Batch of 3 targets.
Target 1
Amino acid sequence: MLCMPSLIKGHEIARPHFECIDQMSSLAENHVAVIPFPATSHARPLANLVLKLAAEAPRVHFSFLADPGYNDVLSGHSSADAPPANVKVFGAITWPWVNPMPGKSQDKMLQLFLEEGPKNFEAAIGAAEQAVGVKVSCLLADAFYTFACMIAEKMQVKWVPLVVSSPYFVSAYVHYDEIRKCLLDAAAHEEVSSQPDRRTVLEGIPGLSRMRVEDLPDGPAVFTIDSHVLSSSEELALVRSFCELRSVLPRAAAVVMSSFEEVNSKDLLEDLRSRFKELLLVGSLTASLTPPPPHDSAGSGCLQWLNRQKHRSVAYISFGSVNSPPPEEISALADALEASKTPYL
């Protein structure tokens, strides 16, 4: 199990390095089943985490229960970057909902996949155990697969979910009931609309008290939708999994987040830590970060400019490595930032 990473602080980007894995590398054999979520930007972070762990614990087998194509994620961009010998992909799982056939509903296929997930993954775990010759003792899964909690409890093994999304996303769904009440109460006071003012502040929600309704993940409609519609609509299958986070994450052996301690509010992290057995922030898992050059070799003067700014006065904006807004939206964002007189990168 990961221990809390040490972070290199200062003007450089904090870089996590994993200092230990609880006795795993010293044992003769251990077997971890890995359940990745293939869509959007979720595949790479879990792969990067496992590759780091596999290098630290060569005697531990990591079995990816995934489509055979997941080998491309593990191997990187070069055929020379083959995964280590203790990491294998067992192609016992298919993801037809990721790229559905013409005429097929992606929402319906995802709903069926999630409903059949426990049965299919239990079978895949059995096949991996037979192939490796060692029983699985831990499930390392994307947190979106909340059914992994039930599989682990049935097998009497540890479950460690990885949260790729922001800790604020998790907090919003952990406090789903409180936020829902807040929004419905606010909507009841609106004379024209049945929806609350999007500028309503989420007062009283730990770590989210400065956020507005319009800042909520997936939008305020998800938090005010009729409970019957939420429980039955095939379009909301994944949202139902999000809502389950508040009941399953406290049962995890540890909750791992691809985030940094320093970029999250103290109130937010204290609230999450009070709810989980262990919360591990391991830094960015989206890409392998290399140390920045010792000097601003590009000649842009960016680092020198940043060092001259007041503490916590600069907005840093990044759209990740998978999706980016079109140029006109980026231009509009820059115009808004300049109009607000906010220094930004």
Target 2
Amino acid sequence: MAEVDAFREMLPADELQLAIVEPKPLTVASGVSVKDDFFIHTPRKTIAEMIECRQVEKCIVMCTISAIETDMGWYYLSCKPCDKKVMYMPPLVAGDHEDDDLQRFKLYCPKCKSYEPKLLPRYKLHLVVLDHTGNSKFLLFDHLALQLVNQPCIELTVPITDEVQDPDVLPLALQNLIGKTYLFKVEIMRENFVYKHDTFKVNKIITNLAIINEFDTPKAPKEPSTQISRGHEYSVVSDAPEGSLMLLEEGSSQECFPSDLTPAKRRGGPAVNLEEEFDQNSVTKTSISTRVKKEKVDKSG
């Protein structure tokens, strides 16, 4: 096939074998999985607790998008090669020009130092979020907003020109985000609690519904551990009375009560209290020994 031949020509001629590398799970820079980062390593806060925080830190907030502000637009123009935001600058002046030439501005990329940058629109979303404790504003840049929208920004914008057009017009793909709940890893910065800046920057997002539900569900108490061996089944119940033992044998016709001590009703022998068994045995032995002693006394008389 022509495609196979073309692929072979692209391979290096070093006679090294190609290895199949499976994709690694999503991890953070420290090697911790994203789920562990959200569930274990980063403290969770409500919106009210986040606003009242008086130190620089990161936290996990589960909240719902209630609106998307468009006062400052929902995207910006960037330089495609370097990903940096372009700015308006006056053109370079060479020689004598009329005064009105200085009033004209052109888009300029400060990193590439180009007055004719190749433009690419990128997301910059200002979300209004809320939970049961209050509301706040989150700022999301392009790579995070893309996880929510699942569409590149250029697919939602009009043909690229020298300026952002119709910033108040919110595309349907962005309108569909309203009412949805996500997990946000938020950065509380100094300006948030010193200068009362009401917009918080988002560092990471989890959009997986199963993980969100797991995060929202309170942890249930662990079920009693069960050890299974051949011929017998032992149930170890941590909250059983001290000195008691429960032995469940297969094929027994009796049921063990109470049934709420084990995950399911099992067939087995009754629960035996060692202290009561010891007391009963002691009484029986005492009565037997007393009777024997009495008989000996009668014979002797």
Target 3
Amino acid sequence: MDKKLNILTQNVANTALQVTPIISIPNPPSAIPMGCGIFLKINEDRYLISAGHLLNLKDWPNLMVPGADKKMVWLNGTVITSYKDSETDNPIDFGLLKFSTRQNKHFINGSFGFCNPSNIIVNHKVQQGGYYVIAGYPISGVKKTSGKAEFNPIPVKFLTYPLSENKYEKYRFNPDHFILVKYQRKVAPFGSKKKQITKELRGISGSGLWYVPDWNDRKKGVPKFYLVGIMVENYKDKGFVAALRIDFATEVIKQFFIYSPFEHTKFDFVDKVKNLYVSEIK
């Protein structure tokens, strides 16, 4: 079973990585990776979801993501973020960009896909004993190819499980806002008793936290899995990482844009998200 679970986890992670772009700032002839995001498409509208300290009001006009034909695409559009700059002190750490219509053509036939609303669970009830997957590109694993204007990104593919409910109170996290999952620096690979040091998760912010409800419920060999959070903080010294619930992003889409297929989140969004910054580059 361990070997089979390993293969299925790889299938989930590899599929999740197809909608997980690296966010970079230009540094000709290459670029500097800053973190990750999640591509989302609703009808013809394209979005980028990430952590607010990455997609903040000050820095977002200088950020780029991969597009088609190995080209980089500026983040032109409407940004809504909880961070004024990267140093903003706000536990609610998220940013959302709706790409301007004219930017859509730059993603057609590109190497990245876009997840759709059916791949997202709002108001997710954390399943104790359930399986969760982190898939992204920590900046500690993104290396520049020598002599070339390109990167060699090394992804992290991490199978984990949630912390018990009492840990939220201990570490002062609101379970309505966050999902905390285990992070072990030393783990035994599937089928092995010898522990290895896992990849450092520095710069994993903006990647997705994905929930796998049933390994046997598959489509084309890949278990069905769902986006439930965005990675925002690494507390490796305490043995866990924190994801902000995806509800914050889906609620912003529902309240600020014309069309949204998502249900309302059950927590008081207006009360908890008091400072949002909005800007636009057409």
